[in-house]
Design a protein that fits this description.
alpha+beta; 60 residues
Length: 60
């Protein structure tokens, strides 16, 4: 029969080193080419409704 749990104890430092790469980062923002507002790249601009200098969505 095989053991279910770990064979040896992992130290706290080894455990924490493994968990250290779970950091959040700020989303990448670019300036809209039409109105200059900041938006996520490759998405329709929320302020003017344009993408790639063309109006895609009608914004009120």
């Amino acid at each position: 029969m095989g053991a279910i749990g770990p064979k040896n104890k992992s130290s706290k430092s080894r455990r924490d080193k493994r968990r250290a790469n779970w950091k959040m980062k700020a989303p990448n923002l670019v300036e809209c080419s039409k109105c200059g507002a900041l938006s996520v790249p490759h998405r329709v601009c929320k302020s003017c409704g344009s993408y790639n200098k063309r109006e895609i969505v009608d914004v009120d």
